[in-house]
């Protein structure tokens, strides 16, 4: 039996639902151009007619459309739309009639939260499950609309030509060495693509951290699973550079005292309540989540804000509960990748290093200081057996 978590991560064979047309939904709040290009390649490979919608235009500046069109290398223009205000719906209806043959099965494609289900709901008038958590739609579903069948899809990467893709596409590698080199290179490329966009947001957070530490505050970092490892690395490096840093994760969650009473799962609030008890006015809480949808992580940021903390999200997906909960968002740009991410974690580790090493330098921490932060300090203790 699949758990919900596994289902959410299933990568989707595009051909499985025999599309005869496609509508590509681009989320203008977070266009994820590199992933959109994979969708476009897949559409091109099956050779079906399509058009693309620039959704959530109610939240962004109109000039963004032309820029994203150019980045996508599209020959046709994006239809500017909002599933909330209904902007562009008439144009979408007209474009469907113009682009697709009667009775065509039309796949609505795009990453999670791009508004695929919202579009189908607006077109059909049906009351469908819509929400800002990654993976609201977990299976393909066909709906009749006019003379067409619209297929709602899962917002995980869909790639016809790369069925074995787990994280990085290795399908055309011939030797083991080639696969290894490909993975190393892809991790590096994820970091380089992050470098292209993240420097200003990292700089802003370095400034926040410096000010707050000088004011006597501390940093608290959290994440789940692979992001827990990133959080632990950040906390470790914080301590090695003299930054008061604490870390709470759900690793070994069952051994946390809160697990007995409140639970330490991703979907439970035990950890977020527990860890935010340490947040005082002016402390900084950093939440890390590749998807941006890890329950206790975004809940911790919301709770930290309520306690007067300053919140920072490190995530690949900013149009998510985590991105929305944070005062400062650092977006990585490592996608596309398959359901078992590796490039995103590599990019998040690099972001953590950039934050803490820049901070150390700007605070004048020397190598000698750093060694002294690392040296163990000893406290006299009682002799064994003396009670
Ligand atoms: N402001 C604004 N919000 C929108 C718009 N379209 C969708 N949303 C919101 O974005 C979130 C995601 O919408 P969905 O329609 O569930 O997106 P999806 O692509 O089906 O997402 P998954 O099922 O997770 O793959 C929801 O909170 C919607 O209310 C829009 O044009 N403007
Ligand atoms: Mg959906």
Summarize it.
This protein is an alpha/beta fold and 387 residues long.
Could you list the spans in which at least 5 consecutive residues all have pLDDT below 50? 1-10
Number of strands: 11
Q: Output the CATH homologous superfamily of the largest domain.
A: Glucose-6-phosphate isomerase like protein, domain 1
> In CATH terms, what is the architecture of the largest domain?
3-Layer(aba) Sandwich
How much of the sequence is in beta strands? Answer: 5-15%
Distance between the termini: 53 Å
Mean pLDDT: 91
The distinct ligands, each listed once, are:
guanosine-5'-triphosphate, magnesium ion
Structural classification: alpha/beta
The total tally of domains equals: 2
Describe, in plain words, how this protein is organized in 3D:
This protein is of the alpha/beta class and 387 residues long. The protein has 2 domains: 8-152, Rossmann fold (3-Layer(aba) Sandwich), CATH 3.40.50; 177-373, Glucose-6-phosphate isomerase like protein, domain 1 (Rossmann fold). The protein is 41% helix and 14% strand. It has 13 helices and 11 strands. Strands 3-2-1-4-6-5 form a 6-stranded mixed sheet, with helices on both faces. It has a 5-stranded parallel sheet with strand order 8-7-9-10-11, with helices on both faces. Helix 6 packs parallel to helix 12 and helix 9 runs parallel beside helix 10 (295-306). The termini are far apart. Residues 55-56, 58-59, 82-84, 110, 112-118, 130-132, 134-137, 155 line the site of guanosine-5'-triphosphate.
């Amino acid at each position: 039996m699949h758990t919900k978590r596994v289902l959410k991560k299933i990568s989707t064979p595009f051909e499985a639902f025999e599309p005869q047309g496609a509508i590509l939904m681009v989320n203008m709040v977070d266009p994820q151009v590199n992933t959109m290009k994979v969708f476009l390649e897949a559409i091109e490979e099956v050779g079906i007619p399509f058009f693309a919608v620039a959704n959530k235009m109610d939240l962004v500046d109109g000039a963004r459309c032309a820029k994203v069109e150019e980045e996508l290398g599209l020959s046709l223009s994006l239809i500017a739309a909002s599933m909330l205000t209904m902007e562009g719906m008439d144009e979408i209806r007209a474009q469907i009639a113009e682009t697709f043959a009667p009775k065509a099965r039309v796949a609505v494609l795009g990453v999670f939260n791009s508004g695929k289900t919202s579009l189908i709901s607006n077109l059909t008038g049906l009351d469908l499950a819509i929400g800002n958590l990654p993976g609201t739609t977990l299976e393909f579903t066909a709906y009749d609309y006019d003379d067409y069948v619209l297929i709602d899809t899962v917002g995980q990467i869909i790639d016809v030509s790369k069925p074995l893709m787990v994280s990085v596409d290795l399908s055309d590698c011939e030797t083991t060495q080639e696969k290894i080199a490909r993975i190393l290179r892809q991790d590096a490329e994820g970091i380089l693509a992050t470098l292209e966009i993240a420097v200003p947001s990292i700089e802003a957070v370095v400034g926040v951290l410096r000010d707050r530490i000088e004011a006597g505050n501390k940093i608290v970092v959290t994440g789940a699973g692979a992001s827990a490892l990133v959080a632990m690395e950040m906390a470790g490096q914080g301590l090695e550079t003299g930054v008061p840093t604490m870390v709470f994760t759900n690793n070994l969650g069952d051994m946390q005292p809160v697990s007995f009473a409140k639970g330490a799962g991703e979907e439970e609030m035990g950890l977020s309540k527990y860890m935010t008890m340490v947040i005082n006015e002016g402390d900084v809480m950093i939440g890390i989540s590749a998807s941006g949808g890890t329950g206790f992580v975004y809940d911790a940021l919301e709770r930290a804000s309520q306690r007067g903390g300053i919140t920072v999200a490190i995530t690949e997906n900013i149009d998510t509960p985590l991105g929305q909960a944070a005062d400062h968002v650092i977006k990585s740009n490592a996608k596309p990748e398959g359901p078992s991410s590796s490039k995103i974690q590599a990019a998040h580790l690099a972001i953590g290093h950039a934050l803490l090493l820049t901070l150390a330098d700007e605070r004048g921490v020397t190598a000698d200081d750093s060694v002294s932060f690392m040296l163990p300090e000893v406290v006299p203790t009682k002799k064994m057996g003396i009670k």
